[in-house]
Amino acid sequence: PRRSTRARTRTLASTSAASQSAPTPSMDFFGLGPTVTVGATFAEPSDASSTRTVSVKSDASSGGVATTPTRLYTTGDTIAGAITLTTPPGSKVDHLGVKVEVLGQIEMGFDRGHAWDFVALAREARPAGDLIGVTEIPFVFKDVEMPHESYEGINARCRYVVRTTVTRTYGGTVTHDLPFVVRNVSVPPENDAAIKMEVGIEDCLHIEFEYAKAKYHLRDCVVGKIHFLLVRIKIKHMELEIRRRESTGAGANTYNESETVAKFEVMDGAPVKGETAPVRLFLSPYDLTPTYKNVANRFNVKYYLNLVLVDEEDRRYFKQQEIFLYRDALE
């Protein structure tokens, strides 16, 4: 005979929005039995000030973009919390088992609906049995290796969730995802030499640009100079862009998507021969990620400084230079 699982009463610390997610009810379409609602929360550390959260963009119901506070972890952290299973008052729900997983997944735009798991840790939270009232089940995953950062791109997505699955018969299985964000600190790269290059159009334009270095952390500042050695076209203005290039696939099936994530006006007006324009671009205000190389053999993300000159006839002249970005701190 099956043994009923009695609801346990525990005193819990208050949880923030970043530590919990909306509960997921099961749908009883065919009248095969009462439903069960699944919720999940992350454990609050004894020192609340040590809780790390980040704001994640989400769709706003009124249009535009809203942000949601989400729990932040880094590789090697312990992920702990509790799931809550709630049945209707006076109802008993039978199930074939309850499972909790920590999943790291990559989804590609050309293969929507299918995810590749590069992290998959599972725990049996409850064997087959019955649920009555409110049942709370703690979970702990110690020292979880999470090698890739969370990323939301144009054609690629890397995400992490704590997934709860209540298996029931007749298609009544309930799944609930509690998302979290992963960011990892990198060791500062070595051999960071300055960038210096001369470019131009023969007998029309000749400029020399230099940047103090080619590798920057996400709170860094791009410092450089642009020297005008020959100017025989009428330049209207000049700007510096940061462009992100996302590459997915491989070989002949490689897809590149580029987007401009920052613009900085270097000069407004016509320069003259011998003039020097300073460059000082702070990176922290912009939505940047580190440079990602071959994430789980699925995608790459690179960044470029794009120097753009526009003449009075709105013709554009540009030169790109790749830079390397890395994260030096979680905050």
Q: How would a crystallographer describe the biggest sheet?
A: 7 strands, mixed
Q: Any idea what the radius of gyration is? A: 26 Å
Count of DSSP helices? Answer: 0
Q: How many strands appear in the DSSP assignment?
A: 24
User: What general outline do the C-alpha atoms trace?
Assistant: elongated
Strand content: over 45%
Helix/strand structural class: mainly beta
Rounded average pLDDT: 86
Q: How helix-rich are the residues, as a percent range?
A: under 10%
| Uncertain stretches of 5 or more adjacent residues | 1-15, 27-31
- The rounded distance between the terminal residues' Cα atoms is 53 Å
Order of helices and strands: EEEEEEEEEEEEEEEEEEEEEEEE
In terms of topology, how is this protein built?
Elements (H helix, E strand, L loop, with lengths): L3 E2 L14 E6 L11 E6 L10 E7 L5 E9 L5 E8 L5 E4 L1 E12 L6 E12 L2 E4 L1 E8 L9 E2 L3 E12 L6 E9 L12 E7 L3 E7 L3 E3 L3 E11 L3 E14 L6 E14 L7 E7 L9 E4 L3 E13 L4 E11 L5
Parallel strand pairs: 1-10, 5-14, 17-24
Antiparallel strand pairs: 2-3, 3-6, 4-5, 6-11, 7-10, 8-9, 8-13, 12-13, 13-14, 15-16, 16-18, 18-21, 19-20, 19-23, 22-23, 23-24
